[in-house]
């Protein structure tokens, strides 16, 4: 009779562990989705803006030209 109860314990432990893993995966997925919705346009995602930042950092263009071009890039198309 003791052996039968031991098997039930292991099945309960296995299902509990599986539930915990699924819970952790759900929390990570929700965190990832919320983060991607909050920050859809993080700096560095647009290749044109990244190139402009690189050129400004290297001193190839000045501040005024950088700001003017960045404004042009962020302006919606006509």
From TrEMBL:
It comes from the Bacteria. Keywords: Membrane, Transmembrane, Transmembrane helix. The keyword Transmembrane helix applies. The chain crosses the membrane at residues 12-34. The keyword Membrane applies. This is SHOCT domain-containing protein. The lineage of its organism: Bacteria, Bacillati, Actinomycetota, Actinomycetes, Pseudonocardiales.
């Amino acid at each position: 009779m003791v052996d039968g109860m031991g098997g039930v314990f292991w099945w309960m432990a296995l299902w509990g562990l599986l539930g915990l893993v699924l819970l952790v995966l759900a929390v990570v997925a929700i965190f990832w989705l919320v983060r991607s919705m909050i920050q859809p346009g993080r700096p560095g995602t647009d290749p044109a803006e990244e190139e402009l930042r690189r050129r400004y950092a290297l001193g190839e263009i000045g501040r005024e030209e950088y700001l003017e071009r960045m404004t042009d890039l962020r302006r919606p198309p006509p």
